């Protein structure tokens, strides 16, 4: 009996993608349990993680580690692009697993790394997945550039502003501090380091943002870098 696990991944954490991940998980479990020569070893799944790099894919790394230690005999995944969109990573991990007699089946691509021509076909599909990832990235960047040309703002606004649905709005509490810094720099001819020191001495709060939507005003946060950005 072979211990078989499934691996699924979605690149964003929105509801549709997470539903897709749940569907993948259900499919893998049923797929494995239909084969009487396989033992279900569990599901590994990464949510909201890009496939172009393995570095942040904790579940993937855990799965590889378990396989190399001998706890897993076979990995099944939907397609090459779910396993990795980087040709080098794909071949590296498939070869590493193969050295420990662990196979990988890419269901939709009809590829089994244990077959004689498995690596040849895998190289082709991995290259296609990598190119598609590159094109997708270019399309996203192109779309963002067009949006920015129209005044749309991505991410949070700079200090003195807040970003609401892509539009910058002035935050008066912060804007007063920005105006004060501007006056000291332009009219009082003070350097950035001098202004930063004065604001720290005056316990003026500048910059910063806590995770989870916390305050943007933090005491003593007047480093040179923050003054330059403002």
Automatic annotation (TrEMBL):
**What InterPro entries does the record point to?**
DNA_bind_recomb_sf, DNA_bind_recombinase_dom, Resolv_N, Resolvase-like_N_sf, SSR_resolvase
Which Pfam families does the protein's record reference? Resolvase
Q: Which domain of life is it from?
A: Bacteria
Q: Which GO terms describe its molecular function?
A: DNA binding; DNA strand exchange activity
The record places domain Resolvase/invertase-type recombinase catalytic at: 3-151
Q: Where is the Recombinase domain?
A: 158-230
Coiled coil regions in record:
none
Q: Which PROSITE patterns match?
A: RECOMBINASE_DNA_BIND, RECOMBINASES_3
Q: Which PANTHER family match?
A: DNA RECOMBINASE-RELATED, DNA-INVERTASE FROM LAMBDOID PROPHAGE
Q: What is this protein called?
A: Recombinase family protein
Query: What species was this sequence derived from?
Result: Aminipila terrae
Q: What is the lineage of its organism?
A: Bacteria, Bacillati, Bacillota, Clostridia, Peptostreptococcales
